[in-house]
Amino acid sequence: MEIGLPFEPTAAGRWSGLRRRLLGPAVGLRVLSLLAALLVWQGLSLVVGARFIPGPGVTFAELWRLVVSGEVWGQFLITLERMGISFALAMAGGIAVGTLMGLYGRAEKLLDLWITVGLAIPGLCYVIIAFMWLGLNDRAAVLAIALSTFPAIAINVWQGTKAIDQGLVDMSRVFGASAWRRATRVVFPQVLPYVMAAARSGVGVVWKVTVVVELLGRSNGIGYQLNYNFQVFDMAGVFAWTLFFTLVMIVIEIAIMKPVEGWLFRWRPAVRG
Amino acid sequence: MAVPLAPGGAGLAVDTVLSVRRLGKTYRSRAGARPVPALDGVSFSVAGGEFVCLLGPSGCGKSTVLNILAGLDRAFTGEAGLGPGVRIGVVFQSPRLLPWLTVRQNLLFALETSAVPRAEWEVRADDWLQRVGLGPFAHVHPHELSGGMQHRAAVARAFAVDPDLLLMDEPFTGLDEFTARAMRRELLQLWRETRRSVLFVTHNCFEACYLADRILVMSAGPGRIRDEIVVDLPRPRDDESPELFERSVAVTRTVLAAASPRAV
User: Fold this and answer.
1) Strand pairing partners for B124?
2) Which CATH number fits the domain that encloses residue B169?
3) What is the pLDDT of residues B39-79, one digit of tens each?
4) What is the ipTM of this complex?
5) How far is residue A69's CA from residue A79's CA, in Å, rounded to a whole number?
6) pTM score, two decimals?
7) Closest-CA residue of chain A to B132
8) Which residues numbered 172-211 in B keep a CB inside 8 Å of some CB on A?
9) Does residue B2 form part of some domain?
10) Could you say which architecture CATH assigns to the domain A70-264?
11) Are residues A171 and B92, on separate chains, in Cβ contact within 8 Å?
């Protein structure tokens, strides 16, 4: 045979693979980069003044206070709930519309302009319009977040549906697969990577718009807390809240998204770099 | 796949696995456009255990015939009847393996919707992987295999579902000549062991002469069968032999004569 023996992942191999994914091949460089950033941060703080740029020490102390006092969790859960509901709405709508556009040329021609328009409108405009129409309530908030996230998801799913390999569908038909089996076992796995990409870009948009929504029209959530700290010019607070959510997003990415994707798409050829 | 694709499947000789009569097909690209006849009055049959090649230049409709027989194209006239209880297996031009399944899982995917009883699925999958030399690669994903090995997996899948008739659509066209020769030799070996009927589409005259009991020469505009050549060379055939070479030159002339002058 012209190629080597099949790759049989051992337990140790799997663990080192996971570690490599999390930390990357050049762990030293990453740590170095992190340390350098902290140094620069501290230096800027000293030069400009802690009132404008609170140093890492002050910021982490404030973050610690927020976490220990429990203040952060209530606001975080409120923000997370708004994000979750809007994300679910945007995914449902985006998958439905994207699939329609991928499958039917007419739907594509009818809708592609409007998806592009939807993508071009800034999230802030959806937020303002929704609040003006529906009032400063959570219904408007969720609708605005979902609307501004929807186009990016629809585009991803649309591309994914267009990229379905008809040859594989024909193959399964010839070997006797029913329509249901073709949809679930042949079409769905092909679209799944695009749905995951849609979800990932969707989470990014949802988070950014949610904070704006809370800042403009809600009296709780992380966006509101940022706004409050802005009003009283508490820079350490602004830094601490920002840092908190950034850390949460990184943990979600490393602990949930990456492993789930790695497991779902383990069949794909590894990208060699 | 045991039912005839069109009325007319009944009344076949017991030994006939496939009978095609006056098969016609017209493409209408869009409303108002002039319809293009793709097939016209194509008639032939395949006997049990027979190896038949459909040979012709691209565009002569040979793949269209195969798509109709495979059930992928239902807009045709005439009759395309499989013998009673005849089951088919298909090998396409590209391997068409599901990339997220291992090679073995790909075979099982086809077996799960075949007439093979559940108890035999795993045994058959492993057996056929062994027979095409992919035993050690059962748990590998397709992208980790070479092109030739992917084609072997596709051939194993087609045989594994226990078909009476194998439909093969230029399966070795994308391979280099050395790999293709090895694949042809292995295919004949499997064919001799199993005695299944094969309908093999190709545009390669040498390949047709090496493989077939009988060659049906097709030409385009519209697709018709112009000639039938019985290849009476003894088996096993040597792909280096002068007799085979001479025969393939003669067949090439026949194909060219059938195609000229307007259709090429």
Assistant:
1) none
2) 3.40.50.300
3) 999 999 999 999 999 999 988 999 999 999 999 999 999 99
4) 0.88
5) 18
6) 0.79
7) A1
8) none
9) no
10) Orthogonal Bundle (1.10)
11) yes
